[in-house]
Amino acid sequence: MTDHGAFILVNVYVPNAATVERLQFKLRFLRVLQARTEALISSGRHVIIVGDLNIAAARIDHCDPDVGLRDLRIMLGQMDVTFETHPQRLWFNEFVRNPAVRDSSTIEHEHLQNSCMFADIYRERYPTQTGAYTCWNMKTFARQTNYGTRIDYVLTDCGFVDSVQTIEIVQNFQGSDHCPVAANISYELPAGSHELPPLCAKMLPEFSARQSSLKGFLVRNNSKQQDAADNMNTATTTTTTALTVCTSDSSRSSFSTRRSKTSTAKQITATTTPAGQLSLKSFFSGTPATVAPTTAISTSVRSSPIPTAEQDIGILGTNQSQDSHSQIQAWKGLLGGRGAAPLCTGHQEPCVLRVAQTQENKGRSFWYQ
Fold it and tell me: 190 burial class (0-12, 13-18, 19+ CB within 10 angstroms)?
């Protein structure tokens, strides 16, 4: 149910009634719908009801009105029930006025017309149109022969009928066992009616002071921007200090500079990680991963001899191979990979994995026994 200012739109699906219990539930649902919408009309609002009501109002709205009548009588235990006296149809005729008596001047018909607050717009415009169905049985291809029912409606309160300019059942619109019912409404809002409708979601207590604005999805939080700026400043300071310490000894500037670039890159990565950001591995493990603090300045001086270029390359190669091996092991721990081959049902031996080359299954893998 949405409030559009000029009218309140109720988009509804009424349950089906295949059993006695479901029929009783459906009748209770309809009475609640009637009480809610009539209360809105009594408060001075216009109401439009659209949707699947699961009721064929009259014989003209059903391709075979007497089908299933015997089962209905057995289900209700009433052998005198007819198509017109079905409980759900009796409710509909009390809820929606009959277009045949719309312009009647008799006292009985005038009382009947005034007691109904809603009008069936399609029957108001086309009271004698046959074959105007909106639902068909797709299992029996009933749509091709137009063997269906009209159970989808556009109902408005009687004071809003003239605002509906046109209405049409779009039977050539495919894609479902139902077809759309399109209505064109023209209504002028009175001057000064720009305020939010009282039934707007923002007015509901459960959404009070908790509804986010559009700006919140486009502008970053200032605190997050300040944290990112502080982290960037820290990373810059760490890089400068590390380079100064490593290049202070001119006798081994070649090796130390290269090593400082590697360590500085690691320091930048660890320092610029925003607070609270987790690694990929933390989503698969039981405890979240944390970044260990990195010491920016090292004051100890090594007394080991200066390594040669061959030793330098060997050290770097060893570190890279160790890092690569550890990364591979970490990914293997996260991703289990393909499981063990299943055993064949005959010999209980492992099956062979093969890739099909035929046109239908080309590229697909199958286990062969």
Answer: exposed
52 has catalytic annotation: yes
Instruction: Report how far Cα 274 is from the mean position of its chain's Cα atoms.
Output: 31
Which of 3, 52, 227, 312 is catalytic? The answer is 52
Residue in 13, 177, 230, 323 annotated catalytic: 13
pLDDT band at 266 (very low <50, low <70, confident <90, very high): very low
Rounded to 5 degrees, what are φ and ψ at 160?
Answer: -115, 5
Instruction: Reduce the secondary structure of 130-198 to three states and give it as a string.
Output: CCCCCEECCCCCCCCCCCEECCEEEEEEHHHHHHEEEEEECCCCCCCCECCEEEEECCCCCCCCCCCCC
User: In the CATH hierarchy, which top-level class contains the domain 2-210?
Assistant: alpha beta
359's torsion region: left (phi>0), alpha (psi -120 to 50) or beta? alpha
- 3-state percent breakdown (helix, strand, coil) of the chain, nearest 5: 40, 15, 45
Q: Count other Cβ atoms within 10 Å, centred on residue 148.
A: 24
The rounded distance, in Å, linking the Cα atoms of 37 and 113 is 17
Angstrom distances, CA of residue 352 to CA of 85, 254, 339, 349, 369: 69, 55, 13, 9, 7
Please confirm, yes or no, whether 178 is among the known catalytic residues.
yes
Of the residues 62, 109, 178, 312, only one is catalytic, namely 178
Three-state secondary structure call for residue 64:
coil
CA distance 16 to 19: 9
Q: What are the Cα distances from residue 49, in Å, to 121, 224, 252, 259?
A: 11, 48, 85, 75
Query: Is residue 234 exposed (0-12), middle (13-18) or buried (19+ Cβ within 10 Å)?
Result: middle
Kind of pairing, strands 164-169 and 96-97?
unpaired
Beta strands 47-52 and 8-13, pairing class: parallel
Residue type at position 199: L
pTM: 0.53
- pLDDT tens figures, 139-184: 999 999 999 999 999 999 999 999 999 999 999 998 899 999 999 9
